[in-house]
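User: Can you fold this complex?
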Amino acid sequence: MIGFHMTIRRKLIAVMMFVCIFALATAGVAFVAWSLKMYRRIAADNLTITASIIANQTRAALAFEDAGDAEKTLASLSAQPSIVAADISTRDGKQFVSYSRDKQKTAPSDANGVQSDYASRGDNIVIHQPIELDGEKIGTVTLISDVSQVRRMLESCMRIVGCVIIVVSVLGYFIASRMQRYISNPILSLAETARVVSKDKDYSKRAVRISDDETGILIEAFNEMLDQVQISQAELIEAKANLEEKVRERTQALTTEVHSRKEAQMRLVNMNKDLAQAIEKLEQSNQQLQEFAYVASHDLREPLRKISSFGRLLQDSLQNKLTDDDRENFEFMIDGAQRMQLMIEALLTYSRVTTHGAEFRPVDLNLIVEQLRTLELAAKLEEIPGSSIDVPESLPVINGDPVQMRQLLQNLIANGMKYQPKGAVPKIIVRASREAENMVKIEVEDNGIGIKEEYYNTVFTMFRRLHSRSEYEGTGIGLAVCKRIVERHNGKIGLTSNVGKGTTFWFTVPCTEPVSAEAKAAIA
Amino acid sequence: LEYKVKAACLYNFIKFIEWPDDKTSDSSTPITIGILGEDNFGTAFNEITSRKIRDRNLVVKKISDFSAENAKPELLKCRLVFVSTSQRQHTGEVIELLRNKPVLLVGENDGFIEAGGIINFVMQDNKVCFEINADSAEEAQLKMASQLLRLAKRVIKSGKSQSSNAVGIMLQNMRGA
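Assistant: Here's the predicted assembly.
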């Protein structure tokens, strides 16, 4: 059969050839069969006619039992070679005369024998023709015709059919080879185009439309498809080009940007360097300034002490000789010297915060508050009966400079007691709460005069006083020192206040781990 | 046996010969066979007379002597007259009597047909054969089948004696068909 690996050309040829040969073979077989049948019929008819003639001719011979004449008649059958044997039997079935084409062959003994003998060979034609005389059957003619002629004819028929098939096949092959191009050429050209397109990726190629049939439609569709592919490809290429252009532009822009940023960074670095240098210079100058301040105040202390102490001595020795005005002038002088002494002390304290700080260690705030209550602030507490410093809950142990912590709390509590309306009884409450993981917030609440909100920041500035010296005494350095101490402990300081009702100062300091754990336990 | 064969031949002659009155005769009229002279047939005719020819019965009439009183009218009634050897001396008279009459004259003596008879039996190789004088038959208005003529050993026609075989020629002509 037709293999699927064959080319379309070969398939077409094979199909045409197959149909051609099949049709021819069928027609040939039908023709041969029909011929055979017709020939047999004609042969049988002829044989019947011959038998009739023989019957007529031998009637008299049979009637007169003249075997010689009958034999002569039968002998004339040799003119018809297809007749193998003939036989005339009498009315009672006895053989009268017989004839055999092949003389050597012994003549069959009787009609029935002949019949069965030849019938067994298959295709022999046997004819029985009665011999009648005056309506009376006086005998039978039996003719046996072989089919060798039929077979010969069949063979020649088949030979002719075979020859025709071979000739037609050869011719058909040439015709099919030529005719198949009408179908295969467009397809093959399409296939070639498709192959070239697929191989070279050249979408501008087009298949040539040869016919107007389905193949033509196929080719047209293929070409349209190629059109679309080409358009898409062109668009794709354009898009790609655009994209590349964009990428290039963008890259350039980015490069420029990066460059400018680098420059800016460079400038920044330079600026930072300058800044660092400036900071270094500033720190140096600050350091020098602080040293100067410390030295100055330290050195100023001694002459001031001399002025005030010698002023006191002079005032005592001139006690009686001085007028009231002189005495008053002495007082001013000594007071001034003393205040200056205080201010210098405060300045010294301020500068000592950074220059003479101790190392941080655990400090129990409860202890400090207790010491303040019994020592440093005891005098002020006794001054106004009923005044108090309360610690409602136990304060934590913090990590810091114990001296400065003491200073810090002392300043804040003292401030709270100092800035009171006339005749008021100061009530100070110290509290602690957790601020962050390792910071605690300490609050010092008083019931004093309060501070307006606009001064919340300025109170921590050095030498800044909200009140005249006649109202409340002070150097204007206390809170500045507090701020400096807290800052040294990496904490913050601030306040909230209600004018006329009281102020709460708060600050944060780092707490020690055990206390923090304790505090946590307390909170839990 | 010889006469049994001759009886059968006589019977068959009637079949192969056409009489002028065959078509007009009534089928109820029997066909009469006359045997003139000594009857050597015995019972040979018994079987034959039981059959019919063209639906007509067969009757065998025996006339022992031509010189007998009623011999001539009897002979004229016959269709076929067989003249036996015993009546040889009367052959000429019988032929003369039945000349130009539709009667088949059959004899068994040499020179019978030359004398004017129609068919004569002869013995050849112990077989019964016959001779025919076609002219006499024509004169007697008898039509003889060609096959019969062919089977005859000798045929006298227009004075000439010949023997022919037409069947072979016919068959040869048919070969092409």
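Chain B has a mean pLDDT of 78. The longest helix of chain B spans residues 2-16.
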